[in-house]
Amino acid sequence: MRPLWSLFPCVTLVVCVALGTARSRAMETPAGSGQTHVIDGLGNGAAPLGGAWEFHLGDDPGWVSPSLDDSQWPRITADRTWGAQGYYAYTGFAWYRYHLAINPVSGGPKDLALLIPGIGDCYELYWNGILVGKNGKLPPNPTWYTTQPPQTFGLGHLQSGVLAVRVWKALLSSNDHGDVGGFEAMPVLGGPDAIAAHKAQIDFRWLRGRQFDFGLNSLYALVAFLSLLAWSRDRKQWLLLCMAGYTLSQPVGLLLANLRIQWPYSVSVGLLQPVLMIRDISLWFLLLLLLKLEESPRLMRVVRVWVWSFAAAFILDGIVSTAWGSAWSAQVQIADAILTMIYTPLEVLPIVLVIAAVVQRKRLDSARWIVAICAFTSEMISAVRNAAVQFVRYTHWTLADKLNEPLFVLNGNSITPRVFANTLLLLSVIYAVYRYSIEYRRQQAALEQEFKNAQELQQVLIPETLPSVPGFTVTSAYRPAQQVGGDFFQIISLEGGSTLVVLGDVSGKGLKAAMAVSLIVGAVRALADDYPTPAGLLTQLNRRLHGRLQGGFATCLILLLDADGTCALASAGHPAPYLNKQEIELPGALPLGASLSTAYIQKEFTVGPGDHFALYTDGLLEARSNTGELYGFERLEGLFDARTNATDATEAAVNFGQDDDITVLTLTRLASGEEPVALHVSPSLPN
Q1: What is the pTM of this model?
Q2: Where are the domains of the chain?
Q3: Under a CB-based contact definition with an 8 Å cutoff, are residues 324 and 145 in contact?
Q4: Which CATH topology does 462-681 take?
Q5: Distance between CA 225 and CA 236 in Å, rounded?
Q6: CATH superfamily of the 4-205 domain
Q7: Tens-place pLDDT, residues 399-428
Q8: Strand ranges (E), 457-587
Q9: How many CB atoms sit inside 10 A of residue 555's CB?
Q10: How many whole angstroms separate alpha carbon 212 and alpha carbon 216?
Q11: 272 burial class (0-12, 13-18, 19+ CB within 10 angstroms)?
């Protein structure tokens, strides 16, 4: 398939032949009318309406009349705006009139058509006093469009007459030149077929000149889609979200401002301002993350204030601009100027970020520095261009025009400094994000391995099988809320036939809690033989753990059992166990590691055959349903009153809504001669 632009010579030849069949000349007419333009030999071609047009500022419905004496009107041409022909910065109504005398050729077209390349901002077109077309809507409730593609209008059967164009130009914004208003290029008259061919040629040139722009924005859209897809799979990768925000704003901006879609000005500006704001802010945070500056709290506070100030001014400017053309246009113009002066200086944030990275001597790889340089260059070109064009009709600065001049032309596509810088930025960001993603996945793999190691360690610390406890039947179950948890329990046989049951809970969750568990279990194992009483063992544990839990703490419950039913119990801030259906009353005490001087007191008692102990961590009590309701003491009492084993009690809480690690141990006193049984459910991960 041949590329579209390869057809351009053929199209050009056909149109040039068509245009070559007519020529126009001007002649003076008697007083009472303006200059009459004679078009000789109008056949199947078309003729540009060159020469002088009668022109008048203001508005009068009578100016539409073909018989109007406009001989004293000033004259300007239609190949340039009125602002470039002596009416600098004029806004409001103005009229154009053009007298035509057409001499057709035999076999020529029977109808006339007119092509208007563009008029700023909206207009009505009259042929011999009759309205034949318009673009937008004139005051008192004006509507005009951000972009205005060439338009064609049928003028009816071929005849001489007068063209009258009623034009309205909106108030100028802070970045508008003064040489605007009215015709932007010369209209063309001819038969319908010739006008259609001429419009096709203009459209073709427009498309051909934007191939690079369309291709680049298609690439932006693809990168945005892939970035959003990757971010949706891992919401912690904020860099990918910033990348998506920056790249997606580019094609959306193209859609709103540069695709010849006739968006009403208020709608286009109202939508475009947030898009441009997202583009800039996303680029700033992308730069911040790539330069690893998010680790500086002070800088982050400055950036947040900076961003909020910029966003507020930018959004307000967009809201204000939606009222352009209303009865409040003068006030809107002032507000636009003030808000522009607020947000324009804030666009230099990339300079601040690059300086911060240099001052902090960040050790960055080459990919990140390349992005920083490209982002800095792109944003500075944009910021300088935006600043230079502000109030240009008063300053007459030409810097913005120079920045809009092409560096080179590629197959009819003008590559300006900004387009070139944005292209380099996109390529560098893609490469840097690719490198960042590889680095991030490597770190995640290392972290997952650490969790796996911690989980394996915890499975070693949580006994796979329980030792038998003389005189008791034991059941236990453990269910962590995450891959690794902070609950622990140990059953330790002592010399003389006694047994220590240790159950506890470390503050926090995850890897840090698991490491604290390993420390506590190791200490319990080391101290149990030397300090076999619950109070003594808790006191020694507290001394060894004080200052070693990194600001955390651990609750713990220790139960000493003898085969004859004699028991001793002490708690370090842990929920009291249940004996049968009653909670055992224990004196209050601080958790382990909270205070070095804490003294622990144990309670001694005896249990008989059939008595049932239930020890648990607070994850059982604090299970939470989807509605936010806690499992609570009432359900807990019912659970233990039914002498539920550890497995069923744990599953009941999990089904209700697990919110924390859950560990349950039950011990039932056996009658004389019964053999002890120990049943344990191994740690299982949450679904």
Answers
A1: 0.62
A2: 4-205, 211-443, 462-681
A3: no
A4: Phosphatase 2c; domain 1 (3.60.40)
A5: 17
A6: Galactose-binding domain-like (2.60.120.260)
A7: 888 888 888 888 888 888 888 888 888 888
A8: 472-479, 487-493, 499-506, 554-561, 566-572, 578-579, 582-583
A9: 21
A10: 6
A11: buried
